[in-house]
Amino acid sequence: MATSILSKRWLWVWTSVPILDLQDTPFCRTDPNLRFRQFVDHVLILNKTVSLDKFCLKFNLVDHPSYVKTWFWDAVSRDVKELDISIHGTESLNLVWIKYTNDESVSRLFAGCYVLQELVLHKQAGDNTTFSTISIPTLKTLFVRFATTGRCRHKLKINAPVLKQLNLEDNLTLEFDLEDVSSLVEANVTVSWLENRHIPLLKALSNAKFVSFHWDWYAEMKWRNFRPYRLFLNLVQMELHVGYGGWDLLSLFLEFSDHLEVLVLAKNDNCRGLGFECSWKPPKYVPECLLSSLSMVYFKGFEDLTYQLSMVKYILKNARVLKMMDIRSNGDLPLDSKIDLLKKLLMFPRGSKACQLKFN
């Protein structure tokens, strides 16, 4: 098009080229997406090529996906040999702010991903789906965030035999069906309420070595199904971020983790809720991990609260092989309070002679 300045005969030669490489940049847009949409529309209308060798399209996120669909089918109708579409702001196969046709369309999409190793899936309100099946034999990393609203129950089914890392955020009534995650090594789970519907998820994490849980509250759960055996068979490091109504589960999680070596405790921002202080009850019997494997404990956001002191005192007294208890106080505590707190901590008996107390 630039060389058409030299000859008018060259003015429309570009309408016959079999390769279209169209890229959007922030420098050519006044109204977001508008000028580029108009540009692509005009190019496709004026280009007379019956068969395209390549159609490359790189652009920013658009407000109306129907435009992209039109461009896509225009290229397909010309028997395009190579199709390259990139949307700035997304990486890999990240599926964020997607509105699907129906449940089946999601399953068909994943079924066609034969070599996919990492998947980021964010489900939002109004995406037309209530059931998601992720069956990908090559998947190694999965980030799933369910943040939809409404009373409709959603279901997540995962079959990923080589999955190593799972990050899951669940803020709705999500039901789980985890067929095969036997290779899982690391899991990060965030829920508002921990309840019975999460039991299949907890069972699926039994082979993981590193687990991080975030929850604010928990409902009465049917833990008796776990009593005959230990839940987290291979777990060596567990991190718990707990809100106001969930600290009682610490005792149960310790009972389920015979080989735990590192424990990280932290409180969520709402840990002082409704004007009441959090509570904690020690386990009836000393967990096996305290007697044989727990060597490092980190407590973040320590505020000299009764339940916190009780937990620290219990662990220091009963952890036989503990090497270090690292307590990091809340930055709001005045210096005098920190000194008094340190004196309290130093008075607690220790079950391990090798244990060092670190207070920051």
Automatic annotation (TrEMBL):
Source organism phylogeny: Eukaryota, Viridiplantae, Streptophyta, Embryophyta, Tracheophyta
Q: Identify the residues that the record assigns to the FBD domain, covering every copy.
A: 288-360
Under which name does UniProt file this protein? Answer: F-box/FBD/LRR-repeat protein At5g56420
Source species of the chain: Gossypium hirsutum
